[in-house]
Design brief:
With 287 residues, the chain is mainly alpha-helical. It has two domains: 53 residues, no CATH class; 181 residues, no CATH class. It has a two-stranded antiparallel sheet with strand order 1-2. Helix 2 packs across helix 3, helix 8 crosses helix 9 and helix 9 packs across helix 11. The protein is globular and about 70 Å long. The chain starts with 5 loop residues before the first helix and ends in a 37-residue tail after the last helix.
């Protein structure tokens, strides 16, 4: 591969359909790494692989993170945090979505930007993929430790403040079917929660680093999840689920003002030792 012409090397990433393979190619091949670091080929390759492997709303969130990372006082992503919310992240109440407007595609957004910016986004995607599998592993292990029951004495209240899984109504135990491996849709929903959290962290960091002048640095509230994702629906549970998981593994709140980045998966999770195999797209795998 090291002796191939640049024109051929630039085409190889477009035959790749998952982030893990792209990452390993760049790490293993100095020539591929140089191509990925070029002003146009790298952003195009990353944009292509994301489009082949991730759900559209996840791609939108990745693009929004990229948009924030390219921000400066001269070129902010929006005049104010409210304008950013109105344009990009506020939920449309008549649809099951929490994103109303896509950011520019990565191929356009990162074109002629610093190679470190493109590589940084790839490394963030790698960390979120590994955290996604660790999160799934954690909650699935929690599931196997409980005794499922059929409810016996009528319905019980649950909602945004009354979590069903934190209650213990009277019921009749039963033996559930064995858990099959996570499917692609489960993976994408958890990943969507992590990219929302990453977007929140990046906005806070851009404010602290004086790359955004949104008058939030000294604000008591700052950029909060409820402000950033105003009016969101059931997808809020995805966000809260990953927040609970991150709080658990780092023994502290990821939403505190001290937090600047997502942690790596702890060593006792399989995904801390290597990038997991991606789930088959759209297929619920039978046990």
């Amino acid at each position: 591969m090291e002796g191939l012409p640049v024109e051929i090397l630039e085409q190889i990433p477009f035959s790749i359909t998952d982030l893990r393979s792209l990452y390993h190619l760049i790490v293993a091949s100095p020539a591929a790494s140089r191509v990925f670091g070029s002003a146009e080929a790298g952003p195009k390759a990353l944009d292509h692989v994301l489009g082949e492997s991730m759900a559209p709303e996840v791609i939108t969130l990745v693009s929004l993170v990229g948009l924030v990372r390219t921000a400066s006082l001269e070129h902010p992503p929006a005049p104010s945090v409210q304008d950013f919310v109105d344009k990009h992240t506020q939920c449309q109440r008549d649809r099951d979505t929490s994103l109303i407007s896509a950011a520019p595609g990565l191929a356009h957004l990162l074109r002629r930007r610093s190679p470190q910016l493109v590589r940084g986004l790839l490394l963030t995607a790698r960390r979120i993929c590994c955290l996604t599998w660790a999160c799934l592993e954690y909650y699935r292990s929690q599931w196997t430790s409980v005794t499922p029951c059929h409810l016996e004495n009528g319905p019980f209240a649950w909602g945004a403040r009354d979590k069903a899984w934190r209650q213990n109504p009277q019921g009749r135990p039963y033996i559930p079917q064995p858990l099959s491996p996570p499917c692609w849709m489960e993976e994408q929903r958890v990943m969507r929660g992590f990219w929302r959290l990453q977007l929140l962290l990046d906005l806070r960091l851009a404010t602290l680093d004086d790359r955004l002048d949104w008058a939030l640095k000294d604000s008591q509230e700052g950029v909060s999840p409820d402000v950033l994702f105003a009016g969101w629906t059931w997808q809020k549970e995805e966000f809260l689920t990953v927040v609970d998981f991150v709080d658990h593994i780092q023994s502290g709140s990821i939403l505190s003002k001290r937090s600047r980045s997502l942690p790596a998966p702890p060593q006792n999770y399989a995904s801390s030792k290597g990038w997991q195999d991606p789930a088959d797209p759209g297929v619920i795998i039978e046990a």
